[in-house]
Amino acid sequence: MVHATTLKIMRSTMMDLPLQVSRILEHGATVHGGSTVVSWTGGEPRRLPYAQVGAQAAQLAHALRHDLGVTGDQRIGTFMWNNAEHLVAYLAVPSMGAVLHTLNIRLFPEQLAYVANHAEDRVIIVDSTLVPLLAKVLPQMSTVEHVVLVGGADPAPLMAAGPHLSVHHWDDLLRGKPTRYDWPEVDESDAAALCYTSGTTGNPKGVAYSHRSIWLHSMQVCMREAFGLGPQSTALVIVPMFHAMAWGLPYAAFMSGASLVMPDRFLQAEPIAAMIATERPTLAGAVPTIWTDLLSYLDRNEVDTSTLKEAIVGGSACPPALMHAFSERHGVEIIHAWGMTEMSPLGSVSRPPIGVAGQEAWDYRYTQGRIPAGVAARIIGPDGQPAPADGEAVGELEVRGPWVTSRYVGDDEPDAEKFRDGWLRTGDVGTLSPDGYLTLTDRAKDVIKSGGEWISSVELENALMAHPAVLEACVVGVPDDRWGERPLATVVLKEGVSATVTELWDFLAGRAARWQLPERWSFIEAVPKTSVGKFDKKEVRARYAAGAIDVVLV
């Protein structure tokens, strides 16, 4: 029998090293120094081994500290595509004790200025192709003192933004700097990175990720129940590094030794197909709109996708028809994942349980996935009380965990609309099964409330996008004198294909309850998207209210 005093001694003798990003950097640059990050250029790809990524990270840290005077936890903004230099900044900035702030290049100019000022960014690192975009808003970024230019663009537009700004070239800053850096010990609860929500309503909200949360989140991403990264993996990271830290893939890859393929600004179907054929990734991650465009290209062109085994889809629900098409025609398994900026962002991944096959396995794949050990989840019913995890009770999903934020940056107290008793209120509506699988039926703000009953806009969209003529379908609730709200279906048809409203209504009638079927239909050229590629339903509703959408009644 072991006495309690002995246990106390045993606990006290454990070595307690803080979980910090610099340990991910040092591990990847040494143990996995031969793994590579490939940056797509439109011509000959640039290849950088992880050992050199580590060396450049040290050089960047020296430059930021000694040339630009960065101290403490000052914020360093990045205005960049997915490429090797962005990866270097991802690792160097937190490792030196500063805070990495990934600026979303797709925000409106006034929102970009707001988040840079709110975060008090002191330095911004910018890709040369994004100089014109940054130069327009830079005069409104009042705290920025230095801009670091990556690439050969003319710096004049940046220099014209104000006399208080100094512009530096990346290569000049790093040239001659030591390739080793004495990374400081930091408190693992200190902020390492900062992301802002997309700001679809009001100003974007800041979410700070600690060194500890990044470390634990990276470990979960590497696990097989998540993305299963390892030295044998090559990940094509299409999801932007400026959006929710690219789902944690850059840090997880450096931790696990998985190589990376970065598409830079080449996000169209043709170059992505070329990346898959030439760089031979085993896994890729992107939002559904990217996969929809790529599927159309693959169906028309002969492309070797044999190495790509899994495609992670997040950001919004993936239509089952898209999942089946990739699997049956191209041998690529679509893996549903769900999360939020507030969650670093991993929340669930839809891998079926071991031993499940056939349609039952597909039913699991259609869900948003199983909640991992690091996340606690519950469903809150309409009465404000927790509902059973029985796969039937519907309510708003709430989560908490070591990589889930407890408040927004700058808030003294948690926002009551987003946080409840230590739980994050996600705004997503759905069910939880007894074995931990999450099925989301809609966003709380997008559920169509018709005659006292709920209609899931997502379920109608998925059913419509199973029609062979439909490229995209966006369904929103619009005012109705009799029922309060009714669904409006906006449809984008595939190029060269036709369909009538009657055909689509009849098709949908076999897949949804009759009372849920839309009376209002519209064919549109494209569904408006948010800055992170989701359907902008607020914009669709606004266009309808303004009479800017031609509607056919059934």
Write up what this structure looks like.
The structure is a single chain. The protein is of the alpha/beta class. The strands form five sheets. The protein has an eight-stranded mixed beta sheet with strand order 2-1-11-10-12-13-14-15, with helices on both faces. Strands 7-6-5-3-4-8-9 form a seven-stranded mixed beta sheet. Helix 2 (21-30) crosses helix 3, helix 9 (211-222) packs across helix 10 (249-256) and helix 12 (288-300) runs parallel beside helix 13 (320-330). The protein is globular, with a radius of gyration of 24 Å.
Short account of what is shown:
The protein has 554 residues and is α/β, with parallel strands linked by helices. The protein contains 17 helices and 28 strands.
List the helices and strands and how they pair.
Elements (H helix, E strand, L loop, with lengths): L3 H9 L8 H10 L5 E4 L6 E4 H18 L7 E5 L4 H12 L3 E4 L6 H11 L1 E7 L3 H7 L8 E5 L5 H4 L6 E4 H5 L16 E6 L9 E5 H12 L11 E4 L11 H8 L2 E4 L6 H11 L3 E4 L1 H13 L9 E4 L6 H11 L2 E7 L6 E4 L8 H9 L2 E2 L5 E5 L5 E2 L7 E6 L18 E2 L2 E10 L4 E7 L4 E3 L2 E3 L1 H8 L5 E11 L3 E10 L7 H9 L10 E4 L13 H9 L6 E2 L1
Parallel strand pairs: 1-11, 3-4, 3-5, 4-8, 5-6, 6-7, 10-11, 10-12, 12-13, 13-14, 26-27
Antiparallel strand pairs: 1-2, 8-9, 14-15, 16-22, 17-18, 17-19, 19-21, 20-21, 21-22, 23-24, 25-26, 27-28
Helix pairs in contact: 2-3, 2-4, 2-10, 3-4, 9-10, 11-12, 12-13
